[in-house]
Amino acid sequence: DNYAFNNVDGTLTITPAPLTATAEDKSKTYGSANPALTIAYSGFLNGDTEADITAPGISTSATITSGVGAYPVTLSSGGATNYTLSLVNGTLTVNQAILTVTADDRSRTYGSSNPALTVSYLGFVNGDDASNLTTAPTTSTAATVTSDVGGYAITASGGVDDNYAFNNVDGTLTITPAP
Question: 9 vs 45, 89, 147, CA distance in Å?
Fold first, then answer.
């Protein structure tokens, strides 16, 4: 009774909610195609999904020929009316390819010198060959000119290269009776 009301409207300001887009970390083997690059989101509200925003672009500088190492997975642009979008980059890790190095089987007769010991390779990619290795694997055997008739291991060992992990497989030197 004692007051007359003068109603004055106010403003309710709705500000964008925070939304984080994170480029998911990925890995691949040297010489293989890049995996699908994906984005994980954190912060959607009210049943919103990726379909309710303009998704950021996602890319990496890594290619099928990129050497072993870490490459950025970069997010760019994107937007949303109801969200403040934060972009978090990820990493694509290129791991070594497996290179199988097999000591080639050899034979000789008793009393002869050992033949040249060689290896065969399986698993080169991107047009690489043995000439691309930092250090080629070596071969050795315990057999000598005076070793008895029988089989002796030819051991493949070593080998160094940034892009390859070596799987060395032994061969056999067979010494046969002298004629």
Answer: 28, 44, 105
